[in-house]
Design goal:
The protein has about 400 residues and is of the alpha/beta class. The protein contains 14 helices and 15 strands. Helix 2 packs across helix 12, helix 7 packs across helix 8 and helix 12 runs antiparallel to helix 13. The chain is globular, with a radius of gyration of 20 Å.
């Protein structure tokens, strides 16, 4: 896997019932009634399998690192991976006495998913489970879902810091994704502001969703915003708030901050500097496009069958674009392209196309969804079909 991407962290099996279209969650799930659904599907899930298998489908040499139990669901998980690529099971750790994690995904057509989750052996995942020698020359290391990896957020995130520091110290680009957590969960008791302050200096690319990062950095603002909104939480995220979050996160250490906004697209903020490990992946002609940027890309219009794994596949598209040596704009469009392909199917990865097919769709005039925000101080980049922010270093060159 020399020169590829390693994906570590959370692994689970998604259990996905098929729901009929044309009805809302409230109409379908009424207590005390029998609700007719379609066939049950088992799908690999979690950051490792969603992002990792998507990268494999995009043609990137990929290594998966995570834990499963020695139970029936663990066997289902292993067989599912082998059917994609038997080599991808090499880095999977089997805890013979442990319980494989699963999520019951309630994914109703046209609505965001609801997940009922058991973490299983993910609770024991730690820094020692990632052996630098076994990364086999990976140039990017992606870790997914620390809030669902108990040891990663216990003790003020010491294991998370140790892992990211160890990997980045070996000259590898580090990438970190988050996940939502319940208000009564152990993760909700963690001081995420403190954890991120200590971990992000060792993170090159930070890719949370807007809900996740607002919940972690400002519980009060998250609660107030969520309470004030009927409908999609993300539809009320405005450019000043995103800029405030982006600047705050970049100041903590990452060179690239990518905030996932669901149907509202993808917000990007990058630092002025490029580390040697990140520069090594970007051809000289594109390096300026990665420095001091503020971009907002709309999503591509797609008939949504399900949103399971959408954020993970968006990250896979972005990391593949970086691995291919694209400009920042090219990597961003690859991200939203992969995300759009993902939601065309109800499971985590079957909608993902090859890299060549994805790029062909992106450059075919694929229709974009509107962004319902006040972008009067932003500039539209017609070539790349995205918005350039007022704090973008190249903004004047595009005027």
């Amino acid at each position: 896997m020399n020169g590829g991407i390693a994906v570590a962290g959370h692994i689970c099996i998604d259990v996905i019932p098929e729901f009929p279209s044309g009805q809302s969650f409230q109409q379908l799930l009424i207590p005390g009634r029998l609700h007719q659904v379609g066939p049950l599907e088992f799908s690999t899930g979690g950051a490792v399998l969603n992002t990792g298998l998507a990268l494999d489908r995009l043609g990137v040499p990929t290594r998966l690192i995570g834990k499963i139990g020695g139970d029936l669901l663990g066997t289902v998980c292993t067989e599912s991976i082998r059917r994609v690529n038997s080599r991808l099971t090499d880095g999977i750790i089997v805890d013979s006495g442990g319980r494989t994690s699963y999520s019951l995904a309630i994914s109703i057509p046209g609505e965001d998913r609801i997940l009922l989750h058991d973490s299983g052996v993910n609770d024991t995942f730690c820094a020692d489970d990632v052996d630098i020698d076994q990364l086999n020359g990976a140039v990017v290391f992606h870790l997914g879902y620390p809030p669902l990896l108990r040891r990663m957020h216990q003790n003020n995130g010491d294991e998370l810091v140790a892992l990211m520091k160890k990997v980045k110290g070996n000259g590898v680009v580090t990438s970190l994704d988050m996940s939502m957590f319940g208000p009564e969960s152990e993760a909700a008791k963690a001081d995420w502001s403190y954890i991120l302050k200590n971990a992000l200096p060792y993170v090159t690319i930070f890719a949370p969703s807007i809900e996740e990062i607002l919940l972690m950095l400002d519980h009060k603002k998250y609660r107030e915003t969520a309470a004030a909104i009927t409908g999609d939480f993300r539809s009320r995220m405005n450019p000043p708030l995103l800029r405030e979050l982006g600047d705050a996160l970049v100041s903590m250490g990452p060179e690239v901050v990518m905030v996932k906004l669901g149907e509202e697209g993808l917000y990007m903020r990058t630092s002025e500097r490029l580390s040697s490990c990140l520069s090594a992946l970007i051809p000289e002609k594109h390096r300026a496009s990665w420095q001091g940027r503020e971009l907002w890309s709309p999503c591509f219009k797609t008939a949504v069958a399900g949103t399971t794994g959408a954020g993970d596949c968006t990250i896979a598209g972005f990391l593949c674009g970086l691995w291919k040596g694209l400009s920042l704009e090219g990597a961003v469009k690859s991200a939203v392209g992969a995300g759009a392909c993902n939601v065309s199917q109800k499971d985590g990865i079957s909608g993902i196309l090859s890299w060549e097919e994805t790029q062909a769709k992106i450059h075919s005039g694929w229709e974009l969804l509107p962004i319902y925000q006040d972008l009067t101080d932003w500039r539209w980049d017609a070539e790349h079909r995205l918005w350039v922010g007022p704090n973008d270093r190249l903004n004047e060159a595009l005027s």
